[in-house]
Structures are given as structure tokens and as C-alpha cells.
Specification:
With 139 residues, the protein is of the alpha/beta class. The protein has seven helices and five strands; from the N terminus they run βααβααβαβαβα.
Length: 139
């Protein structure tokens, strides 16, 4: 299974080791699924992660190390020019573009309502708990 993680899920995983978001990243490290990343998304993770680092009890180098680790196991995909927007919020558009152009079959987010139009492109938009349940069903 290949998926794109919204920044809110990345941040949730940093906030708590008890939730589905953290478990999804743990299963990523175990090779149970493939994360798809673009430069745009990595930059967003970095920006938000570093802005919240102190509150999370992390240092800026901790965020760099985490992102280096994610990049080392994720599938990199470059976004193309000329994408026709499908969402009302241009800030979320790169998530849908990445999933569509890379062929990832899921976007994992806490923000289902804003990303719902991605479903018209054949992308499953799901919350972390539901994605985790799907991962656990796989052999």
C-alpha cells in the first residue's frame, strides 16, 4: 500500500506515541507500507515540525534527523507543472496532486472534509485510525 500523509498526521505522530498516527509511522519503519513524498511536502513537514519542536520537546536537529529518516525510506516523487486544482484550499492541493501523479492509493488526514474531492480521482481519503486498520488487515 502506498500513501501520502497530510502534515497534520505527521504532527500528530510527533505529539503522542499512543495514537494511530504514531503507529502508522512505526509500521512505515517496519516496511508495512510505502510513504510517497515530494519536496513540497518535506518542506511543509520541516516548517511545521521546526515551528512546533520546542512544544514537542524536540530540537531542530531532532526534526532534521526525523525527516532524513523519512526521506531515506519514502518514495520520492516530483510534482509537475500544469496541475488543475480540484480543491477549494490551495494549501491542500499538493497532497492531492502528489497522490494522483504518483499513483498513491491513499491520503491519510484528519481533514477529510477539505480533501473529499480527491475521491473523484480514485484516491481514498482516510483518517489515521481507518488507515491503520487497513494496514493491520494486510498479511
Amino acid at each position: 500500500m502506498r500513501a501520502v500523509l497530510d502534515t497534520c498526521v505527521f504532527l500528530s505522530a510527533l505529539r503522542s506515541q499512543q495514537g494511530a498516527s504514531f503507529e502508522i509511522l512505526r509500521l512505515l519503519r517496519l516496511g508495512r507500507w510505502k510513504m510517497v513524498l515530494s519536496n513540497h511536502l518535506v518542506h511543509e513537514y520541516e516548517e511545521i515540525g521546526k515551528r512546533e519542536a520546542f512544544e514537542l520537546g524536540l530540537t531542530l536537529p531532532d526534526i532534521d534527523d526525523l525527516l532524513d529518516g523519512l526521506c531515506s525510506i519514502a518514495e520520492a516523487h516530483a510534482l509537475t507543472h500544469g496541475w488543475r486544482p480540484v480543491l477549494n484550499d490551495p494549501d491542500d492541493e499538493p497532497l492531492v496532486q502528489l497522490a494522483a501523479e504518483s499513483g498513491a492509493n491513499h491520503i491519510v488526514t484528519h481533514n477529510i472534509r477539505h480533501l473529499r474531492p480527491a475521491r473523484a480521482l480514485g484516491i481514498v481519503v482516510t483518517k489515521p485510525r481507518a488507515f491503520l486498520e487497513e494496514l493491520r488487515k494486510q498479511p
